[in-house]
């Protein structure tokens, strides 16, 4: 509703929070129902949840890339920012990101659907995940392991590497700015996004490490770390953006300030009566 925020960066922020809300909604209702004993899920529902969560996580990574690119152009080429960062560019990148996600996630879901599960029908987690389903499967699981490892490695190495390179270039450009105030402003514009990137990828790295060492760690610890990975970033991201970015903060406070604006009484000069 606030037209002053209809700029590329704030469009990306709204998309990021929408993605966070989507995959949290894919997980949270089923997790709450399991606390009340309604802990059954069909294979189709399990695969649908897995597809939704994986797609949203990959889309989140795409948006992190776009944010890094946006800040890179804003600081290294500020005079050409509005020529390069356009709504068409954002739409194109977003659509390409969705296509990439489908190509990476669909094979994993299809292979999981075609497998035979005979070891058990109990998933010791609050959500469906490829690694967990493989523990219940019978037969050859090498293809699933390879594709799962490829997807995780590709997303992590490719996206994180590009983000790191972008921020290295940003810092180098910021250090070349002579004026202290201009340098501080340039660094402040990136600090918020760096905090969000660290929050997302650090919790993701912790969850990945636990999956590789799952044989030595209890399921309760794994579930706790998975919950932190899935729910902590969506919870703190709105606060990070709301508190660190002045434009969002001012837009949120504007209606409250208008409502509580004091009434000023201006005295008028006394009428002069001519005798």
TrEMBL record:
Membrane-topology descriptor: Multi-pass membrane protein
Which Gene Ontology cellular component annotation is one that this UniProt entry carries?
plasma membrane
Gene3D superfamilies assigned to the protein according to its UniProt record, in alphabetical order = Rhodopsin 7-helix transmembrane proteins
Q: InterPro entries of this UniProt entry?
A: GPCR_Rhodpsn (IPR000276), GPCR_Rhodpsn_7TM (IPR017452), Olfact_rcpt (IPR000725), OR51/52/56-like (IPR050402)
Q: Which Pfam families does the protein's record reference? A: 7tm_4 (PF13853)
The alphabetized UniProt keywords are: Cell membrane, G-protein coupled receptor, Membrane, Olfaction, Receptor, Sensory transduction, Transducer, Transmembrane, Transmembrane helix
Give the transmembrane region(s): 48-69, 89-111, 149-171, 192-214, 226-243
The domain of life is: Eukaryota
Localization, UniProt: Cell membrane
Any idea which GO molecular function terms this record carries?
G protein-coupled receptor activity; olfactory receptor activity
Instruction: Name all G-protein coupled receptors family 1 profile domain ranges.
Output: 1-241
**Protein's recorded name:** Olfactory receptor 52K1-like
- The organism named in the record is Pelobates cultripes
């Amino acid at each position: 509703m606030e037209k002053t925020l209809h700029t590329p960066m704030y469009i990306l922020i709204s998309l990021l929070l929408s993605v966070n809300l989507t995959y949290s909604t894919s997980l949270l209702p089923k997790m709450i129902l399991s606390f009340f004993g309604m802990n059954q899920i069909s294979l189709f529902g399990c695969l649908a949840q897995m597809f939704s969560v994986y797609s949203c996580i990959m889309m989140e990574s795409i948006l992190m890339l776009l944010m890094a690119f946006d800040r890179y152009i804003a600081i290294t080429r500020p005079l050409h920012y509005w020529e390069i960062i356009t709504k068409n560019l954002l739409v194109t990148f977003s659509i390409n990101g969705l296509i990439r996600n489908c190509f990476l996630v669909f094979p994993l879901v299809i292979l999981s659907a075609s497998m035979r599960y005979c070891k058990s029908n109990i998933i010791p987690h609050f959500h469906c995940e490829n690694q967990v389903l493989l523990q219940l499967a019978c037969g050859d699981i090498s293809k699933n392991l390879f594709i799962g490892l490829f997807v995780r490695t590709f997303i992590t190495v490719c996206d994180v590497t590009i983000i790191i390179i972008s921020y290295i270039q940003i810092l180098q450009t910021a250090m070349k700015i002579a004026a202290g105030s201009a340098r501080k402003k340039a660094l402040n514009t990136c600090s918020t996004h760096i905090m969000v990137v660290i929050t997302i990828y650090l919790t993701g790295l912790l969850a990945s490490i636990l999956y590789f060492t799952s044989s030595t760690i209890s399921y309760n610890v794994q579930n706790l770390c998975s919950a932190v990975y899935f729910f902590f970033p969506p919870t703190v991201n709105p606060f990070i953006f709301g508190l660190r970015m002045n434009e969002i903060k001012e837009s949120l406070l504007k209606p409250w300030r208008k409502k509580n604006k004091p009434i000023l009484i201006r005295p008028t000069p006394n009428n002069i009566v001519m005798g």
